[in-house]
Amino acid sequence: MSLETAYIKSGRNTIIHKEKKLNLVIVNGEAHPKIKVTANGLVPFKEDLPRNRREAKERYLEVVHVSSIDVFGEVKRLLFIQALDGREYKIDYSKVGTKLFVRIHQESYL
After folding, report:
1. Quick one: CA dihedral 75, 28, 110, 57, positive or negative?
2. What is the Cα–Cα distance from 19 to 2, expressed in whole angstroms?
3. 40 and 26 in contact (C-beta within 8 Å)?
């Protein structure tokens, strides 16, 4: 069984969204807000997390636990997301609640 994912890790803190039919839900520890990466950019994720991988697939989601050993192995303060809209977003978890929390880092990375 192959564990194909809808994202690629790059470097120490970059996630590249690669599959249009699945949205990513970025979970960076329990204390931080969850973020949904769609084909049109980033939005807050306010729903309950799927209980398992099958439920996530039914909801067209893939949950990315940043601190899991399969991803980065630790909670990150700074994260970069390359979304399918051609933009790279910078997520600065030290600025939660401000307009600097999620912002466009690069307009076009392609």
Report:
1. positive
2. 16
3. no
Do residues 24 and 7 make contact, with C-beta atoms less than 8 angstroms apart? yes
Report the pLDDT value the prediction gives residue 106, as an integer from 0 to 100: 77
Q: Is the pTM of this model over 0.85?
A: yes
How far is Cα 11 from Cα 101, in angstroms, rounded to an integer?
21
Residue 32 three-state SS: coil
What mean pLDDT do residues 72-85 have?
95
pLDDT band at 2 (very low <50, low <70, confident <90, very high): very low
2 is written with which tokens?
Answer: 């192959």
- What is the number of alpha carbons within 13 Å of residue 69 lying toward its C-beta? 0
What is the Cα–Cα distance from 72 to 87, expressed in whole angstroms? 22
